[in-house]
Write a structure and sequence with these properties.
Elements (H helix, E strand, L loop, with lengths): L5 H14 L1 H19 L7 H12 L4 H12 L8 E8 L5 E8 L2 H14 L3 E2 L9 E9 L5 H11 L3 E4 L5 E5 L4 H10 L6 E8 L3 E3 L1 H15 L4 E6 L1 E3 L2
Parallel strand pairs: 8-10
Antiparallel strand pairs: 1-2, 1-3, 2-9, 4-6, 4-7, 5-6
Helix pairs in contact: 2-3, 2-4, 6-7
Length: 241
């Protein structure tokens, strides 16, 4: 998402997330489970778990439920074992799409993802077919009207790679994944609270879609995001909403 449509896309995405609060909790619990099993239950020593807990808090998940899922995962109790798999493909107009999943049945998951692509106008790709079009980074986005100069000063001092002002006035701070938490903490300490903050796969270039193509692309993304095993969807479509 870039240019004039970025801010509108962010607001649309937040609205969609509010509508799907229950599904978001399920995805976050999955992420907490895997992070705690892989890196241990101490959030001070486990950056991935720390980010998952922050997501849980942002989604208004109760603290006791967060603790329960960390304890359950780190206690090696009997339960489902999740596998992380990334799928790649093409949407409307050749837009690049990457899908991160967490599943206990890869046969089911790949079948559901492939079906969504084929039914709604996309095509499943091979490993690496679109990944080169994305950069793994921390991304913090501030509302139009925020002070670019002050944000830039704080962010770069804290370890950010770049600060970008989009055509609609939204300000993006980009960081190495390892510096994301430090940059976010510095900005919030300076009084700048981002509208969105996450470690993500950011598209290096975008494809603008409008009218029917935009509607078809949004439908494809909605269907993929609604799949039970999907954790995150990244794409390079700038959709007019």
């Amino acid at each position: 998402m870039a240019g004039h449509s970025k801010w509108a896309n962010i607001q649309h995405r937040k609205g969609r997330q509010d509508e799907k609060r229950g599904k978001i909790w399920t995805r976050i619990i999955r992420e907490i489970t895997v992070a705690a099993r892989q890196g241990g239950p101490d959030i001070k020593d486990n950056p991935r778990l720390r980010l998952a807990v922050e997501k849980a808090k942002a989604a208004n998940m109760p603290a006791d439920r967060i603790k329960y899922n960390i304890d359950k995962a780190s206690g090696n109790l009997d339960g489902i074992s999740y596998e992380e798999i990334r799928y790649e493909g093409y949407g409307i107009g050749g837009a690049a799409v990457m899908i991160d999943t967490m599943t206990d049945n890869r046969v089911r998951t790949v079948a559901e993802v492939r079906h969504a692509f084929s039914k709604y106008g996309g095509n499943m790709g091979t490993d690496g077919s679109v990944a080169f079009q994305f950069k793994h980074c921390g991304q913090l986005i501030f509302a139009p009207g925020s002070s670019e100069d002050k944000i830039m000063e704080v962010a770069l001092e804290a370890g950010a790679d770049d600060v970008v002002t989009d055509e609609d006035g939204a300000i993006e701070v980009l960081t190495p994944p390892t510096e994301f938490e430090a940059v976010q903490a510095a900005l919030e300490a300076a009084g700048f609270k981002p509208e969105m903050a996450e470690v993500t796969m950011r598209a290096e270039n975008t494809i603008s879609l409008s009218g029917d193509d935009a509607a078809r692309m949004q439908k494809l993304l909605d269907v993929i995001e609604d799949l039970d095993d999907v954790q995150a969807v990244y794409h390079n479509a700038a959709i007019e909403v």
